[in-house]
């Protein structure tokens, strides 16, 4: 599970806190510090908004924690 973030993004901080609270393991890619991560995020999501999640070939872009929970449940992704 990869989470593309911008460090100043409040929704990104909220998403990471939610994942931590629910026991998910993930890798963070800060797109403003890593041009390759920004390019990859744009490639998979078609946009530059964060947070964006990539897991098992599935992508959730520009989401809040409610959408995150629904996405993980709908795709059977467990901690």
Calculate the terminal CA-CA distance, rounded to whole Å: 10 Å
Q: Give the total of beta strands.
A: 4
CATH class, named Alpha Beta
Secondary structure class reads: alpha+beta
Q: What's the structural domain tally?
A: 1
Strand order across the biggest sheet? 2-1-3-4
CATH topology: Glutaredoxin
Q: What is the gyration radius calculated from CA atoms?
A: 11 Å
Keywords:
79 residues; alpha+beta; Glutaredoxin; 3 helices
What does this structure look like?
With 79 residues, this protein is α+β, with helices and mostly antiparallel strands. It has a single domain, classed as Glutaredoxin. The chain contains three helices and four strands. Strand 3 (52-55) and strand 4 form a beta hairpin. The chain is globular. The chain starts with a strand and ends in a 5-residue tail after the last helix. The model has no long low-confidence stretch (mean pLDDT 97).
